Amino acid sequence: MIDLRSDTLTQPTEGMRRAIAAAAVGDDCYREDPTVLALEEATAEILGKEAALYMPSGTMSNQVAIHTHTNPGDEIGVGESCHLYMCEGGGPAVLSGVACRELPSDGGMFTGAAIRAAVRPNQVNFPQMTLVCVENTTNQGGGRVWPLTQLKEIVDTCRELGVATHMDGARIWNSAAAGGTTEAEIAAGFDSLSVCFSKGLGAPVGSALAGSRAFIERATRFRRICGGGMRQAGIIAAGALYALQNHRDRLQEDHTNARALAAGLATIAGIEIDVHTVETNLVFFEVTTMPAPALEEKLAANDILISACSPASLRAVTSLMVNANDIRTVLAGIATTMA
Ligand SMILES: Cc1ncc(COP(=O)(O)O)c(C=O)c1O
Predict the structure, then answer these.
(1) Is residue 311 assigned to a domain?
(2) Which residues line ligand 1 (CB under 6 A)?
(3) Residues 219 and 326 both lie in one domain
């Protein structure tokens, strides 16, 4: 079975399993888990922020950030189809009482001008935009990498308008690897970031929220309310720490495999793909000769798992679970099925 449905499906590597087995633990609600503390410190350092807080999931990390930045009745500016708006169960409305305002986007990315156009006059009848959220890399936007100049424009615009900034950096590691930048350069100026260890980095569980020490102290209270205060969490944090220390350097491999997949798909009749938009490990493509769910089903019967994400499109994701050989097998399988 070759599984390209998601980079969240990875299995722990041998080294990671050894690190998990050997983890020193304590009660993290007492802040006595050395492995969680080490993970938080390493994450904050890589992101160039004062502090970080271990979270059970990227969803909780994003939603705690939104709650900590906003008040009920506020509006938050988000990219089209971004995860914290489209795929977190309406969390901003349920948990924080805020409305999401989609900003016109290209590949999930928007501009400072789009923010300016969306911010409403400061009158009692208008909801006020108090937070803008950037997703980097973009997920439904195609795994795109925000250029540093565009991120700076967002940060500068928001500062001028008095709007806070949050980055959903679930795949910030892919963004840094593909863009040839550091995570701290990407994070510069953002008030908070959520990062995931359980996607391309291959850890079984966990994310982190990073920001100023004062922000993280406030966020810790809402994490507790959400049930995210964990006890001997070092057991899972050890996998995340191992992933952070050992799996960032190999992400280029996933990107090379994704580009090879895209290039191969472009040669198959009945498939449409813009290879230039494949920058990281997410490969979106359209199928014109059969419904995408039908292709998904036929491939699954041949031990190739790729998810249809609309009636006409599919998403394939590379990760440490697939190698260059697997990509060749997948391309041969798709070519045969399409023929
Ligand atoms: C961009 C993005 N943000 C946040 C999340 C949420 O992460 P989790 O599944 O750990 O809650 C995901 C999950 O796939 C994601 O792709």
Answers:
(1) yes
(2) 8, 57-59, 62, 83, 135, 139, 168, 170, 196, 198, 207
(3) no
140 and 181 housed in the same domain: yes
- For ligand 1, the distance from its centroid to the CA atom of residue 170, given in whole angstroms, is 6
CA 227 distance to own-chain centroid: 22
Same domain for 80 and 151, yes or no, is yes
Pick the last residue of a domain from 200, 223, 246.
Answer: 246
pLDDT in tens, 88-131: 999 999 999 999 999 999 999 999 999 999 999 999 999 999 99
DSSP H helices, the chain, are 14-21, 34-47, 58-69, 83-86, 91-96, 112-118, 148-161, 172-179, 183-187, 213-225, 234-246, 251-265, 292-301, 324-338
Q: Taking the CB of residue 291, how many other CB atoms lie within 10 A of it?
A: 13
> What pLDDT shows up at residue 94?
98
Distance CA 178, CA 94 (A): 35
The proportion of the chain whose per-residue pLDDT surpasses 70, expressed as a percent, equals 100
Residue that finishes a domain, picked among 246, 279, 298: 246
Q: Same domain, yes or no, for 175 and 284?
A: no
> pLDDT per residue over 48-94, tens digit each?
999 999 999 999 999 999 999 999 999 999 999 999 999 999 999 99
pLDDT in tens, 171-198: 999 999 999 999 999 999 999 999 999 9
Same domain, 163 and 203: yes
Nearest residue to 134 via CA among 160, 161, 152: 152
Domain that includes residue 276, residue range = 250-338
Whether 233 and 318 share a structural domain = no
Give how many domains the chain has, as a whole number.
2
Read off the tokens for 16: 């990671």
Best mutation site among 9, 59, 146, 201 for ligand 1, i.e. most ligand atoms within 8 A of its Cβ? 59
- Name the residue of 63, 84, 199, 319 whose CB sits within 8 Å of the most ligand 1 atoms, as the mutation to test its pocket: 199
